[in-house]
Every structure is written in structure tokens, then in C-alpha cells.
């Protein structure tokens, strides 16, 4: 695979490489328990309200997922108006644009243009527009969490060592980009080989792909942790692809590493059609049925 092909692959794959839909009943299965515990959506919302950070892992193209996200955000806001929404869909250099939108200084069309949404994310704007409108109407802080596309592509092509000092303005330092999780590596390798190489390994290309994915996770984790540290009374609701959330590999474990408080609590929710996972433990704390 050439560098150009790899960059295109990563642009399409990073963050959406696991477009799993997961549903069934709304239930929780604690990691430490082999028995499934079933809860109503009302009970799940009551538990989510107690968390410092709530992850709503989406399939990016699922209208039902985005509708459920808004329903959960609305319910949590009604219980506690001190919430913030962290968004994979917007990259960190564009945080001031989100703030101008919330302040009423620009309209929705200008927000879309000035964040370069169509170029940098590209999924149907109306998937997320109702959530953004709700945030603006209720003055809910929005967090642009993602890595700039230019940096992600560079790492996917040439690795973390190719970055120079200026590249770290919107991403964590190299010392905070941890690529040593063997389970996460194994999961991503299987996906990478299936989609990029048809089962044929290319070690250098995979290492760069894995580094780019981890950089994406670490950048979002840093944005979330920084907001929490500055605003500990706020609950943060994170909207991101399922692949960044399942089993805690992507964002959650990296946020927890930065906060390092015994009282700090995170919970995750997945949506969609039922799928089979190889691991015995559930990939998230809760599963949310759309019906």
C-alpha cells in the first residue's frame, strides 16, 4: 500500500473502522459479573446521571443512534443542567468557532463552514445539527475534541516520530501517547488486516495506523480531561464512534489515566443491532435499544 493509499484508507477508517451496531435490550453487564443484569431505560438514565463522564458510542451513519444521543442528552440535562458535550466531529483548532456559535455570533451555516465540517468530518450535517441546536438553546458548552486531520494523516503515513514541535499545539506530548495496550493493538490489527491488506501483514504500515488511532484517542482524552479538571462540577457527555469507546481501550482508559481519582466515574453506552463479540465481557456498560 502506498503512502497516498494508506492516508486515504486511514481518513476513511480511523474512528469509523468499527461501525458495529449493538442493541438488544437496554441492559448492563458489569465487567466483574458473568450474569447479565437487565435495566429499564429509566434506570439506565438514573445511573448515567451519577457519572462524571458518559460515552455515547455511535455508528456515525445511524439516524437512530443520533436520535438516541439527543434523547439521553435531554434527559441528563433535565436532571442536571451543568453538562458539556465533547464531540469527535469537531477538531481542536476550531474550539473558538464552537464558542462563537454558542454565543450567537455566528449561525449554523457559518459554524459548518468555519469548522470545515464537510471536509474534515463529512457525515450528514443533520445527524448532529439537532444536538448542536439543543446545546445552543440551553447554553451547554461544546468541546471540540478531535485531532487535526493533517496531523492524523501524517502519523498514519510516517509515524509519530515524523511530527515536529509545531504539530503538538493541539495534541498531547509524545510522553502521553501510549501505544502499549496489547488488547487494543490486537483488535485494531485484525481490523486493519481485513480492510487494508486482505489478511497480509505490513508491519510498518500497521504501526503507523495504530499510532494514528491512539493519537486520535489520546487527543480526545486530553480535551475531555482538561475540561473536567477546569470544570469538575460539570458532567461531560462524549459523542464518538464506537471503536473509540468499546472495552475502554480508546478514550475512557486514557481519560481515567489523566484524572486518576478514585471517585471519578465513567460509563459507556452503545446503540444499534446486536452483534457477537469475541471477548466474554461486554464492550460497554450499557446497551440501548432504539425501540
H/E order of the elements? HEEHEHEHHHHEHHHEHEE
> Shape from CA axes?
globular
Residue share in β-strands: 5-15%
Quaternary state of this entry equals: single chain
In percent, how helical is the residue content? 40-55%
- Give the spatial strand order of the biggest sheet: 2-1-8-7-3-6-4-5
What is Rg?
18 Å
Q: What is the tally of beta strands?
A: 8
Mean pLDDT: 86
Question: What this model shows, in words?
Answer:
The chain has 291 residues and is an alpha/beta fold. The chain has one domain (3-65, 73-80, 151-288). It has helices at 3-13, 41-48, 63-79, 95-102, 108-114, 117-120, 129-138, 149-158, 182-197, 203-230, 252-259; strands spanning 27-28, 37-38, 53-58, 83-91, 142-146, 235-241, 266-271, 286-288. An 8-stranded mixed beta sheet has the order 2-1-8-7-3-6-4-5, with helices on both faces. α4 (95-102) packs antiparallel against α5. It is globular, with a radius of gyration of 18 Å. It starts with a helix and ends with a strand. Mean pLDDT is 86; it is low at 1-35.
How do the helices and strands line up, and which of them pair or pack?
Blueprint: H1 3-13, E1 27-28, E2 37-38, H2 41-48, E3 53-58, H3 63-79, E4 83-91, H4 95-102, H5 108-114, H6 117-120, H7 129-138, E5 142-146, H8 149-158, H9 182-197, H10 203-230, E6 235-241, H11 252-259, E7 266-271, E8 286-288
Parallel strand pairs: 3-6, 3-7, 4-5, 4-6, 7-8
Antiparallel strand pairs: 1-2, 1-8
Helix pairs in contact: 1-8, 4-5, 8-10, 10-11
Amino acid at each position: 500500500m502506498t503512502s497516498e493509499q494508506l492516508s486515504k484508507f486511514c481518513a476513511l477508517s480511523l474512528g469509523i473502522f468499527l461501525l458495529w451496531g449493538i442493541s438488544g435490550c437496554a441492559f448492563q453487564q458489569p465487567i466483574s459479573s458473568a450474569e447479565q443484569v437487565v435495566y429499564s431505560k429509566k434506570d439506565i438514565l438514573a445511573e448515567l446521571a451519577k457519572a462524571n463522564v458518559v460515552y455515547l458510542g455511535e455508528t456515525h451513519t445511524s439516524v437512530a443512534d443520533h436520535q438516541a444521543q439527543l434523547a439521553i442528552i435531554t434527559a441528563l440535562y433535565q436532571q442536571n443542567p451543568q453538562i458539556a458535550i465533547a464531540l469527535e466531529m469537531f477538531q481542536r483548532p476550531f474550539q473558538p468557532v464552537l464558542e462563537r456559535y454558542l454565543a450567537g455570533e455566528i449561525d449554523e451555516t457559518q459554524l459548518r463552514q468555519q469548522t470545515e465540517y464537510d471536509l474534515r468530518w463529512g457525515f450528514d450535517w443533520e445527524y448532529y445539527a439537532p444536538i448542536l441546536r439543543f446545546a445552543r438553546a440551553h447554553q451547554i458548552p461544546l468541546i471540540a475534541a478531535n485531532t487535526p486531520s493533517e496531523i492524523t494523516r501524517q502519523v498514519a503515513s510516517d509515524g509519530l516520530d515524523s511530527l515536529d514541535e509545531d504539530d503538538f499545539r493541539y495534541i498531547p506530548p509524545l510522553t502521553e501517547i501510549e501505544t502499549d495496550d496489547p488488547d487494543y493493538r490486537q483488535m485494531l490489527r485484525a481490523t486493519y488486516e481485513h480492510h487494508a491488506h486482505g489478511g497480509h501483514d505490513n508491519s510498518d504500515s500497521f504501526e503507523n495506523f495504530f499510532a494514528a488511532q491512539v493519537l486520535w484517542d489520546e487527543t480526545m482524552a486530553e480535551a475531555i480531561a482538561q475540561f473536567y479538571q477546569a470544570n469538575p462540577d460539570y458532567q461531560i457527555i462524549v459523542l464518538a464512534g464506537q471503536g473509540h469507546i468499546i472495552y475502554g481501550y480508546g478514550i475512557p482508559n486514557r481519560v481515567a489515566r489523566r484524572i486518576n481519582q478514585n471517585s471519578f466515574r465513567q460509563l459507556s453506552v452503545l446503540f444499534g443491532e446486536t452483534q457477537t463479540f469475541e471477548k466474554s465481557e461486554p464492550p460497554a456498560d450499557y446497551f440501548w435499544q432504539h425501540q
